[in-house]
Amino acid sequence: MTAAPAEDLIKQWEREQARLRQQVVEEDTEDWQKEPDFSGLERVGGVDLSFIKGDDVNACAQLVVLSYPDLKLLYEDSQMVTLTAPYIAGFLAFRETPFLVEALQQLEKNQPTLLPQVVFVDGNGLFHYRGLPCVGVAKNLLQVQGVCKNEEHRSQIAALQKGGDSFPLTAASGKVLGKALRSSDKSSKPVYVSVGHKISLDTAVRLTYSCCRYRVPEPIRQADCHSREYLRTHFPAAGTGIKE
Q1: Torsion angle (degrees, nearest 10) of CA 9, 121, 191, 224
Q2: Rounded to an integer, what distance in angstroms lies between the CA atom of residue 122 and that of residue 135?
Q3: Tens of pLDDT along 43-86?
């Protein structure tokens, strides 16, 4: 792709990001979000894309729906997709999200009673589907707006003593962009929780922790596992070269 079309595309995506940002609701909107034990929440979803190493175009788009609170698999959908949008740092959602939204559309059409009440996304940023609440959970810190992995950040991580402990990720402007969460007693590495839509940050952190058996919350972990297994089954020559 030549420089000019890429610049045009970035400008288009920046406008779309700004438009979506105006629509984001960063507060609790569902009754179950206000309950201490999330009473009324029965289905949580997770989405993920996995690639074969060396191939950045063909991927497995994965959706899983788990029961809550026992986190048992209720539904899964694995589809091979071809990504047509270019990879541009900071705009990953525009490349991957359309296929994950399509998986939710197919579920709503074919088995609407299994549509999740909240969706977990591997990463940061926005994800919209018909007003579903959404939580972003990333394994790596997105270093933006003055948030960086400096000595202060490392000392804050070291101060997380047990599962459920967290600290805010505060931008230079003073706005809290998300929280670092120690999601398991067994892992000292935090995950980074952000609001996708229709949920408060504190509730997103609390819900994420309640969905963790290991470091990564089960909806995302199981989506990742199922997508990798699909690729191993259908592309055995790829061996262990499958990447997220």
Answers
A1: -110
A2: 9
A3: 999 999 999 888 889 999 999 999 999 999 999 999 999 999 88
Dig out the tokens for 42 from the structure.
């029965």
Classify residue 161 by its DSSP letter.
-
Whether the CB-CB separation of 175 and 206 falls below 8 Å is answered with: no
- With b for 16 or more beta-carbon neighbours within 10 A and e for fewer, the 9-44 pattern comes to beeebeeebeeeeeeeeeebebebbeeeebeebebb
Report yes or no on whether pTM surpasses 0.85.
yes
The count of other CB atoms within 10 Å of the CB of residue 74 is: 18
User: Residue 142 in contact with residue 124, Cβ under 8 Å?
Assistant: yes
- 176-181 and 191-197 as β-strands: parallel, antiparallel, unpaired? antiparallel
Q: What is the mean pLDDT of residues 150-163?
A: 92
